[in-house]
Amino acid sequence: MKAVGIYTLANDAVFDQLVALLNSIEVNVSPDIPVCVIPYNDKIDKVKREIQSRKNVTLFENRESIQRWDKFADEVWAVHPEAKQGNLSRNGWYLSPLLRKLCAFDGEFEKFVFYDADSLAMKPLDNLLDKLNNYDFIFDDWEHKKSRENAALDITVIENSGLYKEENIRPKLHCSSFFGSKKGIFAPSELAAFKKLLIEENEIEWVRKWWDDAFLFNYMTLRCDRPLFNCTLSPNGQERTGNCANADPFVNINNVLYNQEGLKPIYRLHYMSYSSRDFARLCQGEDVNIRYRNEFLHYRFLKEPEKRPKQLKSPNIFTKSNRVLQKVANKIQAGIS
Fold this sequence. Notes:
The protein is an alpha/beta fold. It contains eleven helices and eleven strands. The chain has a single domain (2-239, 293-305), classed as Alpha-Beta Complex (Spore Coat Polysaccharide Biosynthesis Protein SpsA, Chain A), CATH 3.90.550.
């Protein structure tokens, strides 16, 4: 058993992002901290080769844990109100095994931090890991600021249950792209208890969106009633920063990003809303509209500078037209599946 470590979730589709994340962890967190990659699916040939080339990186191979979380997701989502609407097709996103990231609770690290693969690590984790002496979950996001209509949980439904009020719910809302926690939380017996509440007591109605790992994770952290800390609610202003590449302004100092206001160091940059295809094309030399793309390219090709594109070029009209046609075809296929 190892005291601390990092998890991420990946497959070959996000290979470029995984390499960039691993390089940023090595440079900005620690060259010695162990990292474990949870397989998103079985398409991990490139991921396996990359893991073999790194001394501190391993593949999560606990099939029992993976199957348990997959089964939990399938059974719970099957009773969600949206699952019963015939106009929604259960393919693509709606069969996404994103909840596998919670296999981290069954892994070998006593304390851990999880990063989504579409992230860059920006600073050491010592302070965050220290907080796990007093809290069971650490988050660093602004989900608690969202309106009732866009919140992860249906606050009105939960309030009507008489169990929680909005002032108790809102500070506990969070995303799932970055979090710290501990081994052993959400053991099989606790998952069984959640499943009973969600299915038999219809608490699945608390979860606003179907097949969203973050929304279900919010239900679990609220319902288990364990101590939770969100850095964006910290009384220490230095801990309250942004993290989203597509929304927040940052300052680059030696390829490390800081909050523009006050030059506060951030834990990670999250490339939310950009697709893995965008990053693959960027790495192949295409001029893709991604904020902080130079920072991404720096870390992606940190160990292979000779492979970094010398110049970014816009795709030609033929390529653009083909992509538009492919998007249309994909939507039609999704609609009839």
